[in-house]
Amino acid sequence: MSLKDIIVPAMGESVSEATISKWFKKAGDAVKQDEPVAELETDKVTLEVNSPASGVLKEIITPEGSSVGVGALIGKVEEGAVSTNATPTPAASEAPKAAVVAAPVANADKSGIAARKIAEEANVNIADVVATGKDGRATKGDVLNYINTPAPTVASKPVAGREERVKMTKLRQTIAKRLKDSQNTAAILTTFNEIDMTNVIALRNEYKDIFEKKHGVKLGFMAFFVKAAVAALKEIPEVNAHIEGDELIYKKFYDIGVAVGGAQGLVVPVVRGADELSIAGIEAEIARLASKARDGSLAMSDMTGGTFTVSNGGVYGSLLSTPIINPPQSAILGMHKTEDRPIAVKGQVVIHPMMYVALSYDHRIIDGRESVTFLLKIKEAIEDPRRLLLGV
After folding, report:
1. Structurally, what CATH architecture does the domain formed by 171-390 represent?
2. Which residue of 53, 215, 331, 339 pairs with 361 in a disulfide if CB–CB is 3.0 to 4.6 A?
3. Per-residue pLDDT tens digits for 249-276
4. pTM of the predicted model over 0.90
């Protein structure tokens, strides 16, 4: 019999450190080759570490909560060994009780490892969680929604327990650091405009049913904004650039990050080659990435390498905001809630559906003229969607 090392795998571009959030096995437990034995949490995603061989988990070298780097040795497996850990057998008098709880345990096993981990830490019975995942599987988002939904209050809360101290996850710590670094490093300014959504809403309403029937995805507004952003980036290349040392790097590709709320917070998966995709292709890719964000299954490759970001705070009811740049990018477009407002059209006051849009940009690269022109290009494309088809 030989000992096999459990090594922290490569975790993707620019990620060199992770936290061991959970060991699924304890020393002496039997393991199978490629079976998950530990879970790592990085600043972007969670990922599992699998056993290198079948046998027994001989030793856990690095405990839960420890920070580890790529290639670190965290445990050892004795290949071919047989576990001597006893499996508890219920007494005869406990058999009826075991039968009663068997169904909830089976349901829990259908849920993802990360979802069960969150439920265990919050002392939540996962069988009580309304599952929305495939085959009745409870996702991370399901558990978090259950935890964050306040229970009815029938009496005043006691003075004790009015606060709860919870350690920030690795992801939340890194989000906080990156956003603060963005403010400290870039010279961030924000410019605003408003868009009359009348024509794009009419276009969507006229074709949404035919579009969904033909392409299998719903027609939203995000794809129009992504297309408009790509067209504007091609005309104003400074917005698609970033600073690296004393050089400006101009990207000649268009990988657009789309900010979405995931199970662990805000994440920005990337629509690759958005300039080469149709409206239907963009909608399909956004739907795929949003689904992965909700169930916590985004891979590192889904979230790296974006050149520009579009964020839609309007889905949460935001009327106006100043989005923060996602480094090393140099700009971010913020969409907001569409509301009927009075505007002047040919000397007449009319009510139209209007949306405020914001462009936050790094003034070290992008001047006011470029930023205003870029946002105007977005406005023109959305107010007259025919421009996107004609490339004008």
Report:
1. 2-Layer Sandwich (3.30)
2. 331
3. 999 999 999 988 766 667 889 999 999 9
4. no
